[in-house]
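#lab-general

N.A. 3:47 PM
ok so I finally got the sequence cleaned up, no stray characters, all 891 residues accounted for. can someone with queue access submit it? mine expired

B.Y. 3:52 PM
send it over

N.A. 3:53 PM
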Amino acid sequence: MSIEAKYSPAEKEEKWYQLWMEKGFFNAKVNPDKEPYSIVIPPPNVTGVLHMGHMLNNTIQDVLIRKARMEGKEACWVPGTDHASIATEAKVVQMLREKGIKKSDLSREEFLKYAWEWREKYGGIILEQLKKLGASCDWDRTVFTMDDDYYRAVIRVFVDLYKKGYIYRGLRMINWDCEAQTALSNEEVIYKEDGETVSLYHVKYQIEGSNEFVTIATVRPETILGDSAIAVNPKDERYKHLVGKKALVPFINRPIPIIADDYVETDFGTGCLKVTPAHDVNDYEIGLRHNLEVIDTINLDGTLNEKCEVPKFVGKDRFKVRKEIVKDLSETGLLVKEDQMVTRIGRSERTNTVVEPKLSLQWFIKMKEISKTAHKVVMDDEIQLYPSKFKNTYNHWMENVKDWCISRQLWWGQRIPAYYYGPGEEDYVVAEDQDTALALAKEKSGKPDLNLSDLKQDEDVLDTWASSWLFPITSFKGFEDQYFDSESGKIKKGTNPALDYFYPTKVLVTAPEILFFWVARMIIAGYEYLDDKPFEDVYLTGIVRDKQRRKMSKSLGNSPDPLDLIKSYGADGVRTGMLFSSPAGNDLLFDEKLVEQGRNFANKIWNAYRLVKGWKTVDNQPDDVNAQAITWFEARLQQGLNEIEEHFSTYRISDALMAAYKLIWNDFCSWYLEWIKPAYGDPIDQYTYNKTTDFFRSLMKILHPFMPFITEEIWDDIKTQEDTYLIVSAWPAKKAYQEDHLNDAALLFELTSEIRNIRSQKGLSPKDPLELNIKTNSSEKFDKIKSSLEKMANLSDINFVDTKPDNCLSFVYQSDEFFLPVTETIDVESERKKLEEELKYTEGFLNSVNKKLSNQKFVEGAPAKVVEMERKKKEDAEAKIKAIKASLSTL
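B.Y. 4:20 PM
back already:
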C-alpha cells in the first residue's frame, strides 16, 4: 500500500483499537500451555475522569501487559472502578441539591436509587477514556466494587473476620470528617507537605482561690470549653507547687485539676498543656491515665453544642467560634499573646476539611496480628517493592500499625452486616443475610419469638478500602459460595480455574501514597484467605508535578486535560512523553515539551519508513559498505535488546523506553540509514533492502508496548504473509553478537563526527570530498572501516603518514592524529587554542580517573570489569595527551 506523507494519529488510533477489540486480542483465558501474566488495575474512583496520574500509571501497566502478550504469555489486565463511598455520595448529594432535593428528605432506598442512576450515567467515563490511551485491558472482566458478587464478597469477609475475632465494635477516638459527616481511618487523613501556618494562642487560666495564673499555649482555643485538666511535666520545677490544685476554665469558671504527666514537653509552648480528652487523641490517652471527664463540645457537623456552657457559641461553626473566643479572651485580658507557627494539620483526603478528633462508637479491625505475615514477606523480599527505598516506609507503618476504623456514616457502600435486636451494647449479631441473622439473634437473646421486623441493620457502610483490599481475589470471583470454605475461613484452592491460574498476579503498578491504604491491606487479605501473596512485585510510580515541582491540581490550573493532549499529540506521543522522565518512585516533572518530543519521535519513525519505502531496488548482493552496516546493526540491535530487557527486569520502564528511543533515532535513523542510503536516484541492492525491512520489523516489535498505534500501522504495511498482527507477534529473541562489530562502528562514527564538525566549523561544503591523513601505530583497525568512512565522511582518499602535512586541519582521537589538507591558509593560533582546550579537558579527565584508581576502596570493592574499564580510560587519556602535545609541538 502507499504510505501517506504525514502520520495522522486520531484516525489510526480509532481504527486499530477497534480492530484489536473485535479480534479479542485483549481477552485472556485459562491456558495451561501458556505462562500466565496478570495485572489488576488500581481501580479509579467511579467519580473520576482521567488525570495525569492515571495516564502515567496506566501507560506503565499497558507497556508491561503488551510486552508479556508478545512474549507468548497469557496476558490478563483486569480493569475496574471503585465505588468511592465518600466521593460518590458527595457527588450525588450535590446533584440532588441542584434538583432542590435534600438527602435528609429521602429514605436510604430512595437515595441509593439516585446513586445508582448517577453511577450508570457517569461511572464508566474514565474507563472509556483509558481506551483512548490504548489500554489493552480485558474489558469483559471489568469489575465494579459494588457489583452484586463483589458486594457479597465484602460482606462475607466482614462476617468471617468477626467470627475470627479480628473485627470488633468499640468507643474509640477516631478522625471525623465534619463535611462528609463520617469517620475516617488514620490513612485517610492527609497533611500538607510543608505544613500550615497557624496561630498559637497563649491563654491565662486563674488558679482557684488565688490571684495566680497559669498560661497555656493552644492552636485550638474553641476547645477550651471542653477542657478537663491542665497537665505539667512532673520534673518541671516551675509548676511543681501547682500540681493537685485547680484552675478555672475561662468564661465558665469550671474548676479543673492540675495534673502531672510525662507526656508534657517542658520546652514546648509554656510547659503547661490544656487537656481536652474529647477533642485530641493524646489528650484522650492522658484522660484515660488520670480518669478525667470527657466533655464533647463539638457536634458531628462541626458546630458547638450546649456542653460548651456558653449560649452565644451554641450552633456556631468551630472556626467561627475560634475567632469570637479569641476576641473575647483579648477583651478580658486572658489572651497573653499570639504567635505564628508552622504545624501539621490533618485534613480529610476526600473533602479537604480539617479533621476533628472525636470519641465515637465505630467498627474496627485488629491489625497487629493479622498484618504480621504481610509485614514479613515484604521485608524478606518475597514481595519486592520497586524502588526498594519504600521498604523502610512500609516497615515503619507496619511496625506502628493501629487498629483500622472501617465504619463510615454513609449510605453508598457495603452496609455493615450487623443486626441489632435490643437496646444493650451487645444486643447484636453479625451475619451475611437477614435469615441467618434472625436465627443467631434468637439463639443469642434466648427469644425464639423474634422476627425479622425486630432486627435493625447497622446504618453505617464499610470504608471503601475495606472492599478494594479484596480486589485481586474478587477480580477472579474468589469468594463465591463454591470456592469459599466458611468453616476454615479460607478459599479452597484447586476449585476456581481462573483464580488458580492468574493468582498471584505478576505486578501491581500504583502510587506510593496508597502503599498502606491499599497495597499492604491487599497483602494482608491475600495471606488471610489464600495463604499466598496477591502479586509478586509492586512498582511504585512517582507523583506527576509541573516544572516548578508543584503537585498537579485543578485549583492551581497546572494540570492539562489528558484527552486534549491526545488530540494534539496522539496517544503514542502522550504515552512516550509521560515515560520520558518517570523513573520508578521518583516524581515526574511534567513538561508538555516531552509530549511534543514523543510526537516528534512518531514523525521521525514515519518519515524513516517512508524513506525506505521510496528506495528502488536492484537484484545485487551488497557491497562492502552495506555489508558492514548490516553486520553492525545486527550486533547493535541485539545489544539494545539486551539493555531493554535488563531495564524491564527491574521495572526501569523509562530507561527501557530511552534505550529503544536511542536505538531507533540515533542508531537506526541517524547512522544505519545514512550508512546504506544510496545516492540520489540510485537503487539499493535487494539484500540490503530486505535486511533493512527486517530490522524495521524488529524495531516495531520492540517499540510496540510503548507506542502501539504507529507501530501497528507500519507493521500492517511491512509484515510478511506469515506475520499476524503486531499486538500478538512474537517479541524479538535475544541472540549472541560480537563486540568487535560495535567497536569498529564506534571508531567509524567518532571519525565521521569529527570530520563533519570540522566542515561545519570551517564552512567547508559537505559535498566537496576531502583527503584524510592518519598518523598511527596501528593502521589495521582503519582498514576495516576505510570504505565506510570514505562514504560517510565524503573522503576522496585515506592515507597513512609519519609527519603532519603542511596546511591542514587536525584533530586527535585516542592516541592517533588526523589531518585534513585544505587549500586555504590555516589559522595557527585558532588551531593551537583548540588543541590546548582539548588538552586541558583531557588532563582533567585523566585526573578524575586517577583519583578513582587511587581509591583503594573502589579498586577492591568495584566489579573487576568496572576497574578494568577505568584503567582503559586512563591508558586512552594518556595516549591522547601525548598525541595532542605532539600536534601542538608541530604548530
